[in-house]
Amino acid sequence: MLVRCPQCDRQHRVADALAGKRAKCSCGAVLSIPAAAETPDDDPLGSLDSPAPRPSDVSAEADAEGVLCEFRYGQAQSRFLWLFSVAGIIGAVLVPVGIFWNDGWEINHVPLPPWGATLVAESAGIGCLLMFVYIVGGNFYSRSHRKRVAITAGAVLVPRGVFTTEERVLPLREISLKVRDVGPTSHAYLKHGGGTVRLTAFLFPTDADYDRFLQVLQRQVGGAE
């Protein structure tokens, strides 16, 4: 029988033995399988002479049928990883400099008081360290915890955060897409409801993977704004 996921709009073919029970879609939604369902006569899947999937195969079969494209996400490309590593080193240097060597600094030929020099150095140093922790820490987490972005016929699946493998399901009909180049990289902004999800090019395995993701997403959404 055929069951449609109400959250991602994906259609699954499940065994008749599951009638009246529940199964889990790959998007995370729980499906209630009707107690009695008939396969439409004009549905080509109804005429397939193939064994029905076992209950444990439902999620795996949904992935094979419904995912248009899927890419690993979260590990920074090597050239950017080195860039943020250098930022971490700079931050580690600026923090003690602002504390111990804060005399005689000038901005636009105006001498800064020691506390002013400390404030400038600490702000820059802590900012660099936070970028380092965010990118490099997330990179090591992603090595051992598989995270992905994926597009199905009805939704986009994105990670909920840097240090989690949980996914958010964004229905395609409810999102708008904007693409912006920021510095040496590109960002895709997916606006959904009152929030925005940002996907960064250098967190895809390659730039070609990011371009492919955008092509499929723009085609599904109807084009970037």
How much is the radius of gyration in Å?
24 Å
Label the CATH architecture of the largest domain.
Roll
- Name the overall outline: elongated
Please tell me the total number of domains. 3
Give the N-terminus to C-terminus distance in angstroms: 40 Å
Helix vs. strand class: alpha+beta
Helix content: 25-40%
Strand element count: 13
CATH topology of the largest domain: PH-domain like
Counting DSSP H or I runs of 4 or more residues, the number of helices is 4
**How are the strands ordered across the major sheet?**
5-8-9-10
Could you name the ranges where pLDDT drops below 50 across 5 or more consecutive residues?
Answer: 37-65
Task: Assess the beta-strand content as a share of residues.
Answer: 25-35%
Largest sheet: 4 strands, antiparallel
Q: According to CATH, what is the class of the largest domain?
A: Mainly Beta
Return the string of H and E elements: EEEEHEHEEHEEEEEEH
